[in-house]
Specification:
The complex is a heterodimer of chains A (117) and B (110).
Chain A: E1 3-6, E2 10-12, E3 18-25, E4 34-39, E5 46-51, E6 58-60, E7 68-73, E8 78-83, E9 92-98, E10 111-115
Parallel strand pairs in A: 2-10
Antiparallel strand pairs in A: 1-3, 3-8, 4-5, 4-9, 5-6, 7-8, 9-10
Chain B: E1 9-12, E2 18-23, E3 35-39, E4 46-49, E5 63-68, E6 71-76, E7 85-93, E8 98-101, E9 105-109
Parallel strand pairs in B: 1-9
Antiparallel strand pairs in B: 2-6, 3-4, 3-7, 5-6, 7-8, 7-9
The chains are: A mainly beta (117), B mainly beta (110).
């Protein structure tokens, strides 16, 4: 069965960087892209961008351009999302999801990233 | 402020039917497929409806989707207490060149 398993919770200081991983199993990793979606506490879903696991092409949300980098390691079927220059409003649960556009048919369990001094 | 507008909350009694609307524009819903997601408390979102009205395997036919013009609707019949969740619509917005979600609707089953 398809599974996306994410890394554990992180606590970071403002200005630091965080890198969240998403390990895929149960399907051919390079046949689908991976998207990242975040959800601030008590708020809705925000799309961050996607990466093609086939050729590494990326498409980032405009508001995160310059601060976010998405990568994949096809040898381990793992996708990564790095967010730099963290601010307090980056505090959120970060989800990976299979696909480069709607619909997102499988989701990771989420990774809480807390930015606090 | 989301480009897709959903009511913040809806409620209905067990066994009843409820609809959740998602209003957009020609740059998003009007020219793209709509998906719907269910997010139970403390869990990741789950795909309920894709391509406006299709259900993934395992999703009961109590859940249905429709689209007309620049609006989409999620319908849930035979409400159960386990349906209490947040529901989100989503689509592509060609003006923003971005995937977008509605603000979410909290369903309460009274």
């Amino acid at each position: 069965q398809v599974q996306l398993v994410q890394s554990g919770a992180e606590v970071k200081k403002p200005g630091a960087s965080v890198k969240v991983s998403c390990k895929a199993s149960g399907y051919t990793f390079t046949s689908y892209g991976i998207s990242w979606v975040r959800q601030a506490p008590g708020q809705g879903l925000e799309w961050m961008g996607w990466i093609s696991a086939y050729n590494g092409n990326t498409n980032y949300a405009q508001k995160l351009q310059g601060r976010v980098t998405m990568t994949t390691d096809t040898s381990t079927s793992t996708a990564y999302m790095e967010l730099r220059s963290l601010r307090s409003d980056d505090t959120a649960v970060y989800y990976c999801a299979r696909g480069t556009g709607h619909p997102f048919d499988y989701w990771g369990q989420g990774t809480l990233v807390t930015v606090s001094s | 402020q989301s480009v897709l507008t959903q009511p913040p909350s809806v409620s209905a009694a067990p066994g009843q039917k409820v609809t959740i609307s998602c209003s957009g524009s020609s740059s998003n819903i009007g020219n793209n497929y709509v998906s719907w997601y269910q997010q139970l408390p403390g869990t990741a979102p789950k795909l309920l409806i894709y391509e406006n009205n299709k259900r993934p395997s395992g999703i009961p036919d109590r859940f249905s989707g429709s689209k007309s013009g620049t609006s989409a609707t999620l319908g849930i019949t035979g409400l159960q207490t386990g349906d209490e969740a947040d529901y989100y619509c989503g689509t592509w917005d060609s003006s923003l060149s971005a995937l977008v979600f509605g603000g979410g609707t909290k369903l309460t089953v009274l």
